[in-house]
Amino acid sequence: MFAARRALISNTIKDVFTRRLKHSLPDLPYDYRALEPIISAEIMELHHSKHHATYVNNLNAAEEKLQEAVAKGDVNTQIALSPAIKFNGGGHLNHSIFWCNLSPNSGNPDAALANQISKDFGSIEEMKKRLSETTVAIQGSGWGWLGYDPKTKSLRIATCANQDPLHATTGLVPLFGIDVWEHAYYLQYKNVRPSYVQAIFDIVNWQDVNARFKNATGC
Ligand SMILES: [Fe+2]
């Protein structure tokens, strides 16, 4: 009787712990059609409900296995799981930023961000040009980023391969990211990545980028 009750309590605690650690697919802050004609509803629906959802599901599965491995003291399995956690965790983090980085109501950089862009790149147009060129040139799948370097207190352009997350791999704070996996544009732009990258600047959610910059600089 006692043993059964103890097992029930133990399982309940385990369930609560496991549930708390589960990641979930965030809702888009707009409709799938909202970014047309720059990004089609078909791409947005597949990208969000299939691709991002898969990263979330695979991250949860990998973390569950990691919990079991940690509980057993199985270090080999813990190490073997790290690529899956990096890939799927990165995919979840990157896409969660990406959806918020975009909006049908684009806006402009605020004064603080505009000043920093001018200081580090000369002008907003020059920053866009350099971010576009760098992002278009990524070999294979990856992300182009405008990030903030807390060490030098300056903006930087960087690229990450696959789903490597910017902050964990470079130390830069992500402000604006461009997904150049083919799933992000191929159905609409085919092989013409430069047209997709150029068009995405028309749907930058500058309010979101301003807020991320403010948060990164702490002012
Ligand atoms: Fe993607």
TrEMBL record:
- Top enzyme class: oxidoreductase
Residues noted as binding Mn(2+) in the record, renumbered to the chain: H47, H95, D179, H183
Q: Where in the cell is it found?
A: Mitochondrion
| Listed GO CC annotations | mitochondrion; respiratory chain complex
Q: Would the keyword Chloroplast be found if you checked this record's keyword annotation? A: no
What cofactor(s) does the depicted protein rely on?
Mn(2+)
Q: Which residues form the Manganese/iron superoxide dismutase N-terminal domain?
A: 22-103
Q: Which Pfam families match?
A: Sod_Fe_C (PF02777), Sod_Fe_N (PF00081)
Keywords annotated in UniProt:
Manganese, Metal-binding, Mitochondrion, Oxidoreductase
Q: Which PROSITE patterns match?
A: SOD_MN
Under InterPro entries, the record lists: Fe/Mn_Superoxide_Dismutase (IPR050265), Mn/Fe_SOD (IPR001189), Mn/Fe_SOD_BS (IPR019833), Mn/Fe_SOD_C (IPR019832), Mn/Fe_SOD_N (IPR019831), Mn/Fe_SOD_N_sf (IPR036324), SOD_C_sf (IPR036314)
What this protein catalyses is: 2 superoxide + 2 H(+) = H2O2 + O2
Q: Which residues form the Manganese/iron superoxide dismutase C-terminal domain?
A: 110-212
Give the enzyme's EC designation: 1.15.1.1
Q: Which GO terms describe its molecular function?
A: manganese ion binding; protein homodimerization activity; superoxide dismutase activity
Function comment: Destroys superoxide anion radicals which are normally produced within the cells and which are toxic to biological systems.
The protein's matches in PANTHER family, at most eight in alphabetical order, are given as: SUPEROXIDE DISMUTASE 2 (PTHR11404), SUPEROXIDE DISMUTASE [MN], MITOCHONDRIAL (PTHR11404:SF6)
Q: How does it assemble?
A: Homotetramer.
Entry similarity comment = Belongs to the iron/manganese superoxide dismutase family.
Q: What is this protein called?
A: Superoxide dismutase
* Protein source organism: Cardiocondyla obscurior
